[in-house]
Design a protein that fits this description.
It is a single chain. With 133 residues, the chain is α+β, with helices and mostly antiparallel strands. The protein contains 5 helices and 2 strands, in the order αβαβααα. Strand 1, helix 2 (31-45) and strand 2 form a beta-alpha-beta unit.
Length: 133
């Protein structure tokens, strides 16, 4: 965090013609975990007087939401049996310590969706040079 804050200050010193322009940070995915801490550092430490704010899209903010969202999306696309998703959801598997029921539900969903691209369920998956499944 300190390194990135120092970098931002040094960057604006090196490119001083940008100092007068509004400065915004933006990120997505894992940036949702790191960018807010950088923004806070810039505000608290100062040194970037033209910092105006930040934006994150589809942010990764808390790990348990990742699996819950992925498995919920699989269920919504009818890629896993409703009973398996219901077990996962009702047992609160994303937010509780692992249990046998959760391990079985997640294993089933993982096996049924192996080979799919969870970021593009509607897109074909490439399995080598020129091959599309």
């Amino acid at each position: 965090r300190r390194v990135h804050g120092s970098f931002m200050v040094a960057f604006l010193q090196e490119f001083d013609h940008l100092k007068g322009r509004p400065f915004y940070l933006s990120s997505e995915s894992y940036g949702g975990h790191y960018l807010p801490t950088l923004a806070r550092l810039l505000v608290e430490r100062g040194g970037v007087s033209n910092f105006k704010g930040f934006a994150v899209g589809n942010p990764y903010t808390w790990a348990p939401y990742t699996n819950y969202g992925m498995y919920g999306t699989f269920a919504g696309h009818q890629l896993v049996p409703p009973a398996v998703w219901q077990t996962y959801d009702q047992q609160d598997c994303a937010f509780q310590p692992p249990s046998a029921a959760c391990d079985e539900a997640m294993g089933t969903m993982d096996n049924l969706t192996a080979g799919l691209d969870p970021y593009g369920l509607d897109f074909p998956v490439c399995h080598g040079a020129g091959a599309v499944a």
